[in-house]
Amino acid sequence: MERFPSAAVAALATTLLIAGCGGPDIDELIGPFRTELARLASDADTADRIGVTGLDGWVFFGPELRHLSLGRFWGPDATAVSRSRRAEDADPLPAIQDFKRQLDDLGVELLLVPVPPKAVIFPEKVSGAVTIPIPVPRLDPAHQQFYEQLRTDGVDVLDLTDLFIAERFHPDGPLYCRTDTHWSGTGCTVAAAAIADVIRGRAWYVALDTHPYTAAWYSTSITGDLTREGGVPAPPEELRLRGVVTGRGRDRSPVAPDPNSPIVLLGDSHNLVFHAGDDMHATGAGLPDQLAFELGLPLDLVAVRGSGATPARVNLLRRAQADPEYWSHKRLVIWCFAARELTESDGWRLVPVAP
Question: Is the pLDDT of residue 20 over 60?
Answer without folding.
Answer: no
